[in-house]
């Protein structure tokens, strides 16, 4: 395959259909800029006039190399294309690209639109011709196409032909309910091309209701479709859309698709992980650890036998090099680890193992601690500190003498019940005793911030020469698990931290007291950051 494939992103419109997702206009602008830097060809900004946010976005769109596209629907029956206010709102957005959705399943035309089949074809033809006549690039989203093809292929095809003849640059086959399987997608796409819709003008938009959206998209590409639609991180209603975060590296790195994505520069592909995580950050949700290419576990090798092979030949258990998408290989430590895992992990951390070092003691400590509830395979930073302690390579930046947390439940000035947490942390730093106090609370009962937030703010409030490093980090996820039940329950707390450069690290604490476990993980996070920044003890 040597011809060109075009990428059409619909995160800002279809992705916003995800339950619980509502972008602001400013967030849409940032995401559009991220997509443009990645190298996609089309950015669908939303439906102008459908809601204030989309209208605000199109009123002041960001400059992009990609073609910004407005989404809408074909004109309504009984009106001309030039006299349909809904279509006019889409066109008034002023975008070069205009994507119109239209019915191609006879059932939906009769039952949802309630119009004759021929009227629907006229609506498609007139709407696309109107857009093209204005000098815009017209795209036609053939809604419920695959179900429509199975029900009445002649009618479904006639809808596509109407769009083609009216001047549509792209005709997109939509698997709207996500129920079509990859082999069906391939067969039907090939039949559509054979029936007179050129692959160079044909797109695919798959939903993930069977977990096959990526596979369906690849099947359509292999059959000849040359536009791919999807969303970052697979956002979308129900089970989501085809995940461009998976599709782009697959199409860019797999030999079968070589040359199809010349617009995706290697340096842009290396920024894919950062782009994916920034979107999750905007959505205030934890990244999916097992996501292909960009997940924290995508290149994690836990068993000792695998690690031994990876040390000798990194490609043995990896289908692509982790760094191609900005990721990194991880050899996590756990109670299944062997010395090969340990040596590889120490090497990755930049640690030199002294001659005669007792690696067995480190492994024994890891296994004993995991038996008590620690989990080092998901807390690599805490493992590195443990190993440094054994190797005599753990800097001593400061000592925590004591800390105290008080939680008070009371009413605020507005009469709302709130919880107020006050934390006091005392550290010894360069011979000086420093005490920091922080209070944490929200404006409403649902916005309360608890004792861990107060502890973090107190610990990171005044660390003297290390303050710049601490100000550069923030906590992005907090997970709690009870590892032993009953009255003597043991709590494991895992904290994810991140700095402004996008470096992310995880630490773990274990205690019968959740606050103690949290503080242990917080302390590890700060110490690891100082080591990574090269701070002098």
From TrEMBL:
The keyword Amino-acid biosynthesis applies. One of its GO terms (biological process) is isoleucine biosynthetic process. Its EC number is 2.3.3.21. Coiled coil: none annotated. GO terms for molecular function: (R)-citramalate synthase activity; 2-isopropylmalate synthase activity. Pathway: Amino-acid biosynthesis; L-isoleucine biosynthesis; 2-oxobutanoate from pyruvate: step 1/3. Keywords: Amino-acid biosynthesis, Branched-chain amino acid biosynthesis, Isoleucine biosynthesis, Transferase. Signal peptide: none annotated. InterPro entries: 2-isopropylmalate_synth_dimer (IPR013709), AIPM/Hcit_synth_CS (IPR002034), Aldolase_TIM (IPR013785), Citramal_synthase (IPR005675), LeuA/HCS_post-cat (IPR054691), LeuA_allosteric_dom_sf (IPR036230), PYR_CT (IPR000891). SUPFAM superfamilies: 2-isopropylmalate synthase LeuA, allosteric (dimerisation) domain, Aldolase. It catalyses: pyruvate + acetyl-CoA + H2O = (3R)-citramalate + CoA + H(+). Belongs to the alpha-IPM synthase/homocitrate synthase family. Residues 5-270 form the Pyruvate carboxyltransferase domain. The keyword Transcription does not apply. SMART domains: LeuA_dimer. This is Citramalate synthase. Pfam families: HCS_D2, HMGL-like, LeuA_dimer.
